[in-house]
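[Discussion] Sanity-checking designs against the backbone

I'm trying to build intuition for which residues belong where. Below is a structure token string of 487 positions. I'd appreciate it if someone posts a full sequence so I can compare it with mine line by line.
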């Protein structure tokens, strides 16, 4: 049986913990109606707040309380809004309060009456109307009124509802404000049937907004793929995994923008690629050239076309089949050579072809991308080693076919990059490696020491100690060796 609280204990509890503290402390106790009546003799703010907050306060007491000035106090109004015993008439009084803070409190409450909702839906403060629009407890009649609200953010606040009536959705989707329509199509929680209905309307904006949603059902995407609007078709085809028949149909008869989208689709079947490879529109062929699933025969066919822009698109495709890549290396196009030099999958044959058709410019680009080609032919290696540009000399430096005299000359090249790449030459004599271990460039010296250690480990030669930092003899010895190398 619940413990009965008398007026003395109740007043003491209010004095020590205030209204909220007393409600918490006396939870589960029984407070007789006469004790609650005594609490208001005389009325006090803390007592009024307690009565509004106590879940067992009789409804008639709450109605009497709402007839006093206490109703205009936000904390009392908030307590009445939450109290399950608050009479319906009190909510209607709160809806007509002159205090917008109180109307806001009511608008987010869970015990809204039809009359109170109607008053709030016509509230002069749009913040109150927006709060009401977002409230799941708002009756349908009020939602329909808010769907026609003159303020856009009030209408879109309805979209926060967990579920909207189809009539409300229709009002929002057909709203004259494009932003409201967009928000409805993109944000509203909608059944697949509703999405498909809007997709089938063939309205450009409806379809465009639907395409901004994640996780569109397959039936909706299929409908959008066959839209009469080319832009909608383009966006929908890009998102949908299409059948072979559909892809062939669009690649043969689709509008150019859709054919571009089809050409770029991953895992594009070779049958479709062969159709698109002979498309009259250059953008379609460019999109196909960049496709990661490009078929080897189709790639070769594109590479043989006399169209530099297609070559460039192929060169930028990291999945380009080797045969097509070799074909491109034969073209004397400067920009193509630069693009191909950036690839990490070049074979020795392809590097030779690039150099044959691109010359020193390609050599410089290959150096910039860190390509170290050790099998460069002797004649070409000697020519590039004598070039005025350091990047070209640096490309020749790793070649095992350089003459010893050329290697000695390069070991004292004024550019550190040339000496550093020379230190990685697999045919570099041990004496030159020893010299490079003392190089002023730390990276060159470190690479030379590593190569020398590997050489000595393989051939059993005596280890060469690293010169101590700051030793005076190192500089003299280095100058003597330079004179010998140079002369």
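Best answer:
Here's mine. Compare freely.
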């Amino acid at each position: 049986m619940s413990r009965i609280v008398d007026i003395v204990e109740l007043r003491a509890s209010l004095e020590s913990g205030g209204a909220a503290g007393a409600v918490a402390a006396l939870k589960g106790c029984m407070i007789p109606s006469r004790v609650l009546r005594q609490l208001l003799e005389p009325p006090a703010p803390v007592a009024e707040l307690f009565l509004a907050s106590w879940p067992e306060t009789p409804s008639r007491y709450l109605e009497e309380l709402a007839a006093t000035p206490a109703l205009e106090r936000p904390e009392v109004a908030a307590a009445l809004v939450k109290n399950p015993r608050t009479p319906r008439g009190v909510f209607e009084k709160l809806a007509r309060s002159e205090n917008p803070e109180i109307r806001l409190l009511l608008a987010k409450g869970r015990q809204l009456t039809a009359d109170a909702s109607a008053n709030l839906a016509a509230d002069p403060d749009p913040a109150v109307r927006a709060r009401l629009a977002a409230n799941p407890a708002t009756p349908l009649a009020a939602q329909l009124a808010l769907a026609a609200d003159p303020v856009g953010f009030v209408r879109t606040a309805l979209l926060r509802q967990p579920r909207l009536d189809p009539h409300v959705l229709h009002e929002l989707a057909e709203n004259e404000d494009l932003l409201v329509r967009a928000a409805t199509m993109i944000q509203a929680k909608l059944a697949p049937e509703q999405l498909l209905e809007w997709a089938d309307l063939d309205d450009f904006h409806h379809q465009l907004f639907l395409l901004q949603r994640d996780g569109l059902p397959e039936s909706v995407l299929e409908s959008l793929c066959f839209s009469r609007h080319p832009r909608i078709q383009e966006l929908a085809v890009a998102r949908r995994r299409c059948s072979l028949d559909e892809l062939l149909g669009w690649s043969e008869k689709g509008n150019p923008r859709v054919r571009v989208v089809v050409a770029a689709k991953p895992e594009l079947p070779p049958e479709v690629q062969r159709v698109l490879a002979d498309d009259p529109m250059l953008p379609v062929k460019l999109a196909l050239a960049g496709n990661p699933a490009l078929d080897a025969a189709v790639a070769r066919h594109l590479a043989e076309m006399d169209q530099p822009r297609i070559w460039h698109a192929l060169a930028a495709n990291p999945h380009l089949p080797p045969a097509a890549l070799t074909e491109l290396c034969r073209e004397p196009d400067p920009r193509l050579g630069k693009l191909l030099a950036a690839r990490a999958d070049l074979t020795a044959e392809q590097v030779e072809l690039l150099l044959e058709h691109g010359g020193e410019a390609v050599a410089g680009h290959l150096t910039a991308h860190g390509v170290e080609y050790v099998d460069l032919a002797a004649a070409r290696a000697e020519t590039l080693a004598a070039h005025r540009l350091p990047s070209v000399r640096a490309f020749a430096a790793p070649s095992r076919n350089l003459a010893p005299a050329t290697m000695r000359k390069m070991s004292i090249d004024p550019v550190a990059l040339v000496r550093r790449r020379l230190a990685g030459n697999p045919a570099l004599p041990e004496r030159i490696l020893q010299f490079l271990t003392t190089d002023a460039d730390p990276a060159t010296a470190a690479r030379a020491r590593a190569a020398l250690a590997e050489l000595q480990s393989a051939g059993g030669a005596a280890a060469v100690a690293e010169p101590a930092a700051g030793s005076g003899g190192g500089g003299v010895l280095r100058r003597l060796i330079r004179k010998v190398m140079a002369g």
